[in-house]
Amino acid sequence: MSHPEVHGVVVLARNGDRAEAWQDPVSYKTGSTTSTPLGEVQSHQLGAFLRKTYLDSSSSSHIRGIATDLVDLKEVHVRVKVGGEGSSVFDSATAVLQGLFPPNEKNRMTLANETTVVAPLGGYQYIPVETVEPVNDRSLEPWTDCPAFQERVKKIHASEDFKKKNQDAQKFFHTLKDFVFGRPTTLENMYNLYDYVSSELVHNKTYAHRLPPTYIEQARGLADWRENAIFGDSQMNGLGNIASRAALSSILKALQRIAFDDDPLQFMLIETTYQPFISLFHQTQMVKRHPELKAIPDYGSALAIELRRAPPPDAREFLRFKFRNGTNSDFDTVHVFDHHEDIPLTEFIYRLENSVINSNAEWARACRASSATSWFGLSQGEDGRATGTFMDMVLGMGLFFLVMLLAWSGSKAVQRYRRRAHIRLPNEEAPIAEVVNYGSNEKSRFTHSF
Questions:
Q1: Contact predicate 447/434, CB 8 Å
Q2: CA atoms within 13 A on the CB side of 291
Q3: For the chain, how many structural domains are there in total?
Q4: Which of 161, 229, 257, 442 is buried deepest, with most CB atoms within 10 A?
Q5: pLDDT at 328
Q6: Do 255 and 196 share a structural domain?
Q7: Are residues 87 and 171 in the same domain?
């Protein structure tokens, strides 16, 4: 009996190890941080693992027809969250791509004078990425600047379950004080406590020798409990699932593109932080059969969503979900919506489509925000019309008149400057927010609406 072929994969990956990153317990605004060599190694290992799984022709999960030695940029697309923890997430994406498409001496060209030039570092492959900034695209960081989400966090902190958990942890918090050096030892601040302890345990030899046994496990358990409460929701379209509800916009559109034979896309990487994993595990009901997923995924974790096509005469598309927690394990197959096997693509979309957040305007409505950030420093209300403060309008009008002045002047100096500064994008006649560098404009309905 023939087995379904893998036609493409969407991979949700968490960044690798980084320096401590404090985040506000209510707004979830994150301080600055940097990736570490360990984190880059973890992400590179993930890329090499994905290459072995999906690009090796001897693998049972090999993607049918995908270019393996030299990357075909029409077949691969990468989206990277560059809001909170942005630099470490971006570095992690770069390292994943280095492992996925390592240097290859075939990455060369012959010039007109018959000189052969090999790309630097033995044929390094430069793969462009789409950076996703929350200032104009909420798809990979919808939980910040969200009034309704902050209200949810405060309600959880005030709940009886939270108060009981906090009370039960008082003995641990008392003993932990000597190891967190002035940081508030409360359940509200638990993620930051765990982040500090785990970071020092890995990077600080003196600290690692002093930390008593079980402290990291207790800190991890409390942090898992809190983040699961914040980013998990029993209602599919609940605010607790906002992280995955927004990320699914990119995921579903990529899966539809992969399923469309005339679209070249076959591999999509979404590099992000831990929050969308927890929400997606709840939103798709994976946690019912896999309660161990009610936790913060380790650095370098990945969730792969494989699109598999059954052999004729069926020829339907099915999805298989595989999760890898950290870098020291293989993929484990996990199931969504109480399925005991692969789920049809059509059913998966049908179940989720009414809960997905597809635009900044939808995000603003879900967050009960008065506006959604748009271009030129103005704002976009729920009805899509521009709104904003007086200074926003002044800045916007100033930029408008500056552009008009440059266009009117028509001087050769200005024209030369514009030619140097302008980067042409695919489908440039379309609104900027809808342009996606996919190398195909035949399926505009699959472009991003953020």
A1: yes
A2: 1
A3: 3
A4: 257
A5: 81
A6: no
A7: no
